[in-house]
Design goal:
The protein is an alpha/beta fold. It has one domain: 3-Layer(aba) Sandwich (Rossmann fold). It contains 6 helices and 13 strands. The strands form 3 sheets. The chain has a 9-stranded mixed sheet with strand order 11-10-9-12-8-1-6-7-13, sandwiched between helices. A two-stranded antiparallel sheet has the order 2-5. Strands 3-4 form a two-stranded antiparallel ribbon. Helix 2 packs across helix 5 and helix 3 crosses helix 4.
Length: 247
């Protein structure tokens, strides 16, 4: 079974956010970048577990980005991926990323395409579905469990009030959410092995970019906290009616 895992690089959650070029571009100066946790913890680890359970197969990761993403990509190899692919382009929007990945994957014969449920930078959860559509694969979003046997995938999804069970034949694409797998920490053996595993750089194909960033805007600063004594409940109620905002 050949598995493709979509990996993206995102700013660390503790990064100080700023914008440049007239607030049209994220300022990455001094920012620590990491592998998107949902791609790493759920999609990649579950792909490795499926390969290990089958005793055969391969796990390939694919990332759209420049040379600055290669340390992040190597971490995926250290966790256990067999090979990695970097599509040499700066990601601009979800459709561009999906088009580039689909152009690479269309003739590679992947049985499974896995992605995390969303990225933690733009909270985008659409690339996996777009890739599935472009490759003509069935797509199951927000999967919490995945088992594969004899070319048939059994998938569980958490839904309001219960669990939905879906069966689908391979090839198949899905996005992975909490419950799919547990985080793996790269060990020294994996880190050393990652240095010699193949990381292939693929030139970007020409794809349309119909979306453009007009402007980024920071949320307004938090206002001062008003402390209301417990015995002044009426004042609190009045402020809730006149000043409180529902976000």
């Amino acid at each position: 079974m050949k598995i493709l895992v979509l990996l993206s690089q995102v700013p660390d959650t503790t990064a100080r956010i700023a914008f440049t070029d007239g607030d049209t571009r994220f300022d990455g100066n001094g920012v620590t970048f990491i592998m998107n946790p949902y791609d790493e913890w759920y999609a990649l680890v579950r792909a490795l577990e499926l390969k290990e359970a089958a005793g055969s197969g391969s796990v390939t990761t694919v990332t759209v980005g420049g040379a600055d993403t290669e340390a992040t990509i190597r971490k995926g190899l250290a966790i256990g991926a067999d090979e990695a692919v970097r599509i040499d382009a700066q990601p601009t929007d979800a459709l561009q990323v999906a088009e580039l990945i689909a152009a690479y994957a269309k003739d590679k014969g992947f049985d499974l395409v896995l992605a995390g449920k969303e990225t933690i930078d733009h909270n985008s959860g659409v690339v996996g579905g777009m890739v599935a559509e472009l490759l003509g694969m069935p797509y199951v979003p927000l999967a919490s469990k995945l088992e594969v046997s004899n070319g048939l995938a059994t998938i569980e999804r958490d839904v309001p009030g219960g669990v939905e069970v879906v069966e689908a034949k391979l090839p198949l694409a899905l996005s992975a959410s909490k419950g799919m797998a547990e985080q793996r920490i790269p060990n020294m053996r994996g880190i050393m092995a990652a240095r010699t595993k193949p990381l292939t750089v693929v030139p970007a194909t020409s794809v349309p970019t119909p979306a453009a960033t007009v402007r980024f805007e920071m949320p307004p600063p938090k206002g001062a906290v008003k402390m209301i004594p417990a015995e002044e409940a009426g004042t609190l109620i009045e402020l809730l009616h006149s000043e409180a905002k529902v976000i």
